[in-house]
Amino acid sequence: MKRRMEQPSLARGRHTLRVDGRPRRATIAALALVLAAVLAAPFMAQAADQSSSASPDASPVARGEYLARAGDCIACHTAQGGKPFAGGLKFDTPIGAIYSTNITPDANTGIGKWSYDDFAKAVRQGVRPNGETLYPAMPYPSYARLSDDDTKALHAYFMRGVTPVQAQNRAEDIAWPLSMRWPLSIWRALFAPKVQAFDGAHYNDAIVARGAYLVQGPGHCGACHTPRARTMQELALTELEGDDFLAGGSPVDGWVPSNLRGNLRTGLGAWSEDAIVQFLKSGRNLHTAAFGGMTDVVQHSTQHMSDADLLAIARYLKTLPSSDPKETQYAYDPAAAHALQSGDASARGAAVYRDNCMACHRSDGRGYTRVFPALGGNPVAQDKDPTSLIHVLLTGNTLEGTQSAPSSFAMPPFGWRLSDEEVADVSTFVRASWGNAAAPVSAAEVAKIRKTVAVSTPALPPGASLAR
Predict the structure, then answer these.
(1) Going from the N-terminus, what domains does the chain have, and what CATH number goes with each?
(2) Pairing mode, if any, of strands 409-411 and 397-399?
(3) How many Å apart are CA 315 and CA 320, to the nearest integer?
(4) How large is the average pLDDT for residues 330-343?
(5) 18: which strand partners?
(6) How far apart are CA 190 and CA 429, in angstroms?
(7) Is the dihedral of CA 371, 375, 377, 379 positive or negative?
(8) Phi and psi of 255, rounded to 5°?
(9) What pTM did the predictor assign?
(10) pLDDT digits over 136-186, tens only?
């Protein structure tokens, strides 16, 4: 358990399922497909002007490139080992597979013949030039808030700043009648907002307004971090629509998109603005380190954003109240540390923790800052849903280096050597120690998650044995 138990995603959900280090927005696409099956049988000085750009004087192409970074467009529109934006990334869904499309300016296989109006309609309304509705793996409900200037800048970048790639789009691997797209147009009419310019007048602080624009629009954080209704739409697209906004999403590819509101234990209530900025910039801070889907978000997107925009995001997130007013403030409790230090490992899971986790996360559960995250007070360790904690124990993960924190650290997988009961025991120990107060984990919960993730066995030299 050599590393972090935290934030599968922060400020970008981006929708994101990820496999082999690449994000996959399969869950949102899957939800839309299931719905289809049912139906078919620097920041601006004025708060009201929140156009995104690296600087006010940047060219449209440069501004568009920055916005594409902020939206992490490359994550979904680039296949593993493929050329940037050429599409082909597979999204597995319960009823078949879909593939991301080529959005390079190639005239025959990409979007090179699209006019600005074609582009804007696809991005902000989810409608192709031929009238077909896009699967909401494309987060057009969020992009509906993009300003005209930002949409024009994105169009300029994709037409003039991206290298054309001739790569045919792949058809969906979905059997008829589930492959019909017309039911998606009904979903879009019911649940996708009309294109409307972001109105920053609600916010008294221009920095907060800028952050709100980035989170609600280009960043489309709610696509993963907001729970969804049975009809698969986000329960809220802004904080003005209710406390469900950014209150944490459903499991995505074995990770639970985290709560980005002010919850004192399971959200960002204990995080300062600086801690949020540090996390978005480096993938690590005093509280945690990125893993799962958030690793790619930091790699491809947030580490490249300006300090001013990261601060704006942090300041806006800190305005969101807790979604659970009954949640108490975390307070460190040294009892578990004292027991381990005295040789007492009688508590459930304590011996497993001592033998597998303590070298990196320490007996006091405080880890090593910016290397191995603290477990005491960790939001993921205390989440009502232990999925992410179990997942990282089973499969391990790698904290990738960034521009501001170039070192890379790895947590090895433990699924190959720990039984379901042992994983449940150590998860329970972590969730109940050092002041954490989360419910215990059962072996059945671990077994269920183990079936959905890839648990690898480390390679050993000839003659070596994995016998314990």
Answers:
(1) 17-317 (no CATH), 335-450 (1.10.760.10)
(2) antiparallel
(3) 9
(4) 97
(5) 23
(6) 45
(7) positive
(8) -120, 150
(9) 0.84
(10) 889 999 999 999 999 999 999 999 999 999 999 998 888 888 788 888 899
From the list 331, 358, 370, the residue with the least C-alpha distance to 430 is 358
Give the burial class of 118: count Cβ atoms within 10 A of its Cβ; 0-12 exposed, 13-18 middle, 19 or more buried.
middle
Which residue, 282, 269, 139, is CA-closest to 216? 139
Q: Give CA torsion, residues 176, 179, 185, 187, to 10 deg.
A: 100
Are 138 and 103 spatial neighbours (Cβ–Cβ below 8 Å)?
Answer: no
Take residue 307 and report the two structure tokens written for it: 């300090």
User: Which residues are CB-neighbours of 379 under 8 A, at least 6 positions away?
Assistant: 6, 7, 258, 259, 263, 265, 266, 267, 268, 287, 288
- Take residue 350 and report the two structure tokens written for it: 């304590």
In angstroms, the first-to-last Cα distance of the chain is 17
3-state secondary structure of 192: coil
- Residue 189, exposed/middle/buried by CB under 10 A (0-12, 13-18, 19+)? exposed
**Residue listed under structure tokens 């300029």:** 156
- Distance CA(12)–CA(314), nearest Å, equals 12
Evaluated on CA atoms 26, 169, 301, 290, the torsion sign reads: positive
The dihedral built from the CA positions of residue 123, 124, 130 and 133, taken in this order, carries a sign that is positive
pLDDT score for 32: 43
